[in-house]
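Researcher: Next sequence.
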Amino acid sequence: MNAIGGTFSGRHVSLPMPCTMRIAGLVGLRCADRRTVVGCHSGNLGKGMSTKVSDLSAIAGCMTCHALWDRVQTGWRTLHTDPDLRAQMFQRILAATHETQAMLVQDGIITVKGASLI
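Model: Next structure:
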C-alpha cells in the first residue's frame, strides 16, 4: 500500500490507509492522526438485529470523522441537520467509498476472479 499512517481495519483486512472520509473540515475540525484510521460502516446499509454491514461498504475514517459520522463528536448535530452540510457530507461519503475500494483493489484485497478491475 502506498499510503502511510493508520490501519484500516475491516473484519478481514488490516492495512495502512489514510482517512478517506474527510468530513471533519465541514464543521471546522481537522482529521485526527492517521494512526486512528479504522473501517467505518454506515448504519443505513443493511445493519439490523444481529446483522453487520458488509465490509464492501466500509470507509477508511479517522477517529474524528468516525465520531462525527456516529454522532458522538462535537459538531455532529450541525453536520447532520444543516441541509447544505448534510449534502456535502454525503458527497464526501460517496467519494470516500470509491477511494477506499480503489485502495483495496490496488492492494489485491478486493478482486474479481477471472476479471481485472480498472
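Model: Residues 7-106 form one domain. DSSP finds three helices and four strands in the chain.
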